[in-house]
Amino acid sequence: MAIEAWLMDESNEDPRLPHRRNPNKSVSLDQLAEFGVLYWKLNPTIYENDEELAKIREDRGYNYMDLLDLCPEKVENYEQKLKNFYTEHIHQDEEIRYCLEGSGYFDVRDKDDRWIRILIKAGDLIILPAGIYHRFTLDPSNYVKLMRLFKGEPVWTAYNRPQEDNPARKEYIKGLTEKFGVPLATH
């Protein structure tokens, strides 16, 4: 089954809840791709010897990898870490995450500045382009094991919104504008 994504409601309830609109408004993989979000479904039980994962890593130049268990029992200052991850931000580089166990949510902004919520579960590999506004949180299970991939040495720097003058943000907006031939409002 492909990844599941939807437009979020405007509720201020616990961010770990699904926040679906009523009625639900699904977002397709093709729509996510319009914003530069890429997706693969892999077999997480064979990640150490997965030829498809190896090919993705080679093709895209991901030569660094680490694993992160994100749960209250394994992360010091867990609630503060989650709060930091949930603060809207961009990165100078792609954000590549492969869910090996558990589940969580990546939220990205669409061209109208609405949040799209993306549920990731075991086997989902997602790539967010540099410069896209996004955030991350867990769901009520409070557990996810992620593989983090990078090109070269990992850079963990998050640049909190607003970042309209950030070179990565400008390049992202330029790419969207060129792709669709319509200027997008910066958001």
UniProtKB/TrEMBL annotation:
Subcellular location: Cell membrane; Cytoplasm; Nucleus
The organism's place on the tree of life at top rank: Eukaryota
Cofactor binding note from Swiss-Prot or TrEMBL: Binds either 1 Fe or Ni cation per monomer. Iron-binding promotes an acireductone dioxygenase reaction producing 2-keto-4-methylthiobutyrate, while nickel-binding promotes an acireductone dioxygenase reaction producing 3-(methylsulfanyl)propanoate.
EC class: oxidoreductase
Pathway linked to the protein: Amino-acid biosynthesis; L-methionine biosynthesis via salvage pathway; L-methionine from S-methyl-5-thio-alpha-D-ribose 1-phosphate: step 5/6
Cofactor requirements of the protein: Fe(2+); Ni(2+)
Protein residues bound to Fe(2+): H89, H91, E95, H134
GO CC annotations, alphabetized: cytoplasm; nucleus; plasma membrane
Enzyme nomenclature, EC number: 1.13.11.54, 1.13.11.53
Binding residues annotated for Ni(2+), in chain numbering: H89, H91, E95, H134
GO biological process: L-methionine salvage from methylthioadenosine; methionine metabolic process
Catalysed transformations (reactions): 1,2-dihydroxy-5-(methylsulfanyl)pent-1-en-3-one + O2 = 4-methylsulfanyl-2-oxobutanoate + formate + 2 H(+); 1,2-dihydroxy-5-(methylsulfanyl)pent-1-en-3-one + O2 = 3-(methylsulfanyl)propanoate + CO + formate + 2 H(+)
Membrane topology classification: Peripheral membrane protein
Keyword Oxidoreductase found: yes
GO terms assigned for molecular function: acireductone dioxygenase (Ni2+-requiring) activity; acireductone dioxygenase [iron(II)-requiring] activity; iron ion binding; nickel cation binding
CDD domains: cupin_ARD
Function field: Catalyzes 2 different reactions between oxygen and the acireductone 1,2-dihydroxy-3-keto-5-methylthiopentene (DHK-MTPene) depending upon the metal bound in the active site. Fe-containing acireductone dioxygenase (Fe-ARD) produces formate and 2-keto-4-methylthiobutyrate (KMTB), the alpha-ketoacid precursor of methionine in the methionine recycle pathway. Ni-containing acireductone dioxygenase (Ni-ARD) produces methylthiopropionate, carbon monoxide and formate, and does not lie on the methionine recycle pathway.
Family classification: Belongs to the acireductone dioxygenase (ARD) family.
Name of the protein: Acireductone dioxygenase
Gene name for this UniProt entry: LOC100500592
